[in-house]
Design goal:
Blueprint lengths: L17 H8 L13 H9 L14 H18 L3 H17 L13 H14 L12 H10 L2 H4 L19 H4 L13 H11 L2 H14 L11 H14 L10 H12 L14 H13 L40 H21 L12 H10 L2 H7 L11 H9 L7
Helix pairs in contact: 1-2, 1-3, 1-9, 3-4, 3-5, 9-10, 11-13, 14-15
């Protein structure tokens, strides 16, 4: 049994977010189309608007704030009847006019931004929101992107694009939407995409899935992804491992067996309910199981090798981050061995940087990179991926929890 992480059933998961909650709030009630089917989610939006009038992560990034604000404004303008709702719409609209022009100053876009923004702009305008015209600038890029996606892939649960299927808006083929649905009733384990399905089909399985998401998050808000228990476990364990935690204290025997089962089927997915393996979770599973002394075959990673010789996380990725441009030509076992050697350096560096120890001298570049990687544990704890998994009785968990107690999860 894991000594550092909570029992699986007690892990809190990812915290609720405004974007997906807004899609639930935008579903019309069956008895009265003038009301929201999820009134607690609608009220949550009005009560959780940021001080500047926007919705989104406390860590400011305009691409995120603009999407979150557009998503929240539509249901508040359509269904909101209280003075608080009206004031929230006014403040959110003002934010769009004052900050929309800043999108061009940020270095990168969010995944799928060019597909989502035009839909959100149109959705907000139909609800009566005065969206500034300078936000309506992605139609050409959207059409170009859609031409690259095969029609059958848009409604296939075997492709990652369904996780953001709400981007189809009025262009969705309602008769085919349910083809994208998984066995758990969700569309791509996405509350937003599933709420989009529910608003078009009144599907009972979709409604049950969203009810589960609401129950998981406390009844009013939903996370951006649910469930994603394998992802949460692997990356929380991985960052604890980078900080010096023994791998034997991070996984139960059942969890190890599940990882081996998924590796035998071609790769690890973010959840048993999500049918698409990805290179990131697969690589971390290989590293952790290898450190545990289990026999693993890293050639499973060859399934993620592109024709150009580097690795992608999911199929159909048009852009390849630098950290995945690893040549697939050398033996993958050698790659795994090098990674384990690097992790050893990372752990040494993390130990040296612990409070109460003398500052370490600047080491080689690999050690400095290792220290940067180790510091990723802090933002993960804010997101709830780490703190929500730690046992309450564990001293290390309590220190993390108290240090972050006054910070809202992303």
């Amino acid at each position: 049994m894991s000594a550092l992480l909570r029992e699986p059933a007690a892990r809190t998961g990812i915290a609720g977010v405004a974007y997906d909650t807004a899609w639930l709030a935008g579903v019309s009630a069956m008895s009265d189309r003038r009301q929201s089917r999820f009134p607690t989610s609608l009220r949550w939006l009005a009560e959780n608007q940021l001080a500047d009038g926007s919705w989104g992560s406390p860590v400011r990034y305009e691409h995120d704030r603009i999407l979150g604000t557009l998503a929240a404004l539509a249901p508040l303008a359509q269904f909101g009847r209280r003075d608080d709702d009206r004031r929230a719409v006014e403040a959110g609209t003002r934010y769009l006019w004052q900050h929309g022009h800043l999108l061009g100053r940020e270095p990168v876009e969010l995944v799928g931004f060019e597909l989502l923004l035009p839909t959100l702009v149109e959705r907000a305008r139909l609800a009566g929101v005065a969206v500034p015209p300078h936000l309506d600038i992605y139609h050409t890029e959207r059409e170009r992107k859609l031409q690259l996606i095969p029609t059958h892939a848009l409604y296939s649960p075997q492709t990652t694009v369904v996780h953001s299927l709400e981007f189809l808006g009025d262009r969705a083929d309602v008769q085919r939407l349910q083809q994208a649905q998984g066995a758990n009733g969700s569309v791509g384990n996405s509350p937003a995409a599933t709420a989009f399905l529910l608003s078009n089909t009144d599907d009972a399985k979709a409604a049950d899935y969203l009810a589960t998401c609401l129950d998981w998050s406390g009844g009013a808000t939903v996370p951006v992804l649910h469930p994603c228990e394998t992802f949460e476990l692997l990356w929380s364990a991985y960052h604890l491992f980078l900080g010096g935690a023994p791998s034997r204290e991070l996984f139960t025997l059942i969890e190890r067996a599940q990882l081996h089962l998924e590796l035998s089927k071609g790769g690890v997915t973010l959840s048993p309910t999500f049918p698409i393996p990805d290179a990131d979770d697969t690589a971390v599973a290989l590293l952790m199981l290898h450190d545990l002394g289990d026999v693993v075959d890293p050639t499973v990673l060859k399934a993620f090798e592109s024709r150009q010789g580097w690795f992608v996380s999911f199929p159909y990725e048009p852009k390849y981050p630098a950290d995945r441009r690893l040549s697939g030509r050398p033996a993958l076992r050698a790659v795994l061995d090098r990674q384990m050697a690097h992790l050893a350096a990372v752990r040494d560096c993390a130990h040296a940087a612990r409070p109460g120890r003398a500052a370490a001298r600047p080491g080689p570049a690999s050690h400095r990179r290792g220290a940067q990687v180790a510091r990723l544990a802090a933002p993960l704890s804010e997101r709830g991926w780490l703190v929500g998994l730690l046992r309450p009785a564990d001293g290390r968990g309590n220190r993390l929890r108290s240090a972050r107690a006054d910070r809202r999860p992303l």
